[in-house]
Amino acid sequence: MTLRFSLIIMMCFCIKTYAQDKKINFQLSLGPTISIPKTSELTNTNVNGSPEIKSSINIGAYILPSVNYPINEKLSLDFGIGFYLDRFSVEDKVAATTNKGNRNISQIQTPINFNFHFSKDKSYQLGIGGFASFLVAAKEKGETIVDNSQFNFIDPNDPIFYENSVVSYDKNIKDNYNSVSIGAFIQIKRSISFSADKKGFILLKINQYFNAIKNNDPDSDLTQYIDFKNEKESTTVNLGIGLVL
Hints:
The protein contains 1 helix and 13 strands, in the order αβββββββββββββ. It is mostly beta strands. A hairpin with a 5-residue loop joins strand 8 (about 95-120) and strand 9 (about 125-145).
């Protein structure tokens, strides 16, 4: 983690130096990332116990140094390199077995977008762009719960067995994700003043990943019996506050 933040600080210094030389604006923003709930049915079957993954809201964080290049008074270009930690609460269910846990996805992102300035004082900006994401780490930690009541060979009155069996897990899921992926986003940015000589902004940003999660293996022997579906790609919301340096 210390190495990642050291890299971000070095990027900040390099971008700021470039900004001073080229008369463009250097910006630094940070804030929470919020995951959007989704349900992924992993097969095209309605049979009871079919696998599915449900993700629910969780909160991560990001820090993004960037440069803003004014093209004209109504249009500008942003480019940045930042660290993002996306977090997801997940429930992965197959028949009587359910994994409940939290995923932490660490990545370096390079967003680029055009800003369209509007309002009378041009203090609002609508940004549309895309990003490349470079995976750093992916981990999931939680509990595996087995509902023993679904097994007919278990006597529910037998004191040896409990209704549910619970085992903790902590696993590396980096192999489930592509090392490099892309996505798109839309954002609204509002310019603000912290003081007479210190400018900043607040923003709301919606990110949609396109190919972060690896697809199921099409060469698997099981595909001739079961029509597998892929897990849905993540959607996140960034809330941020930034400084113009």
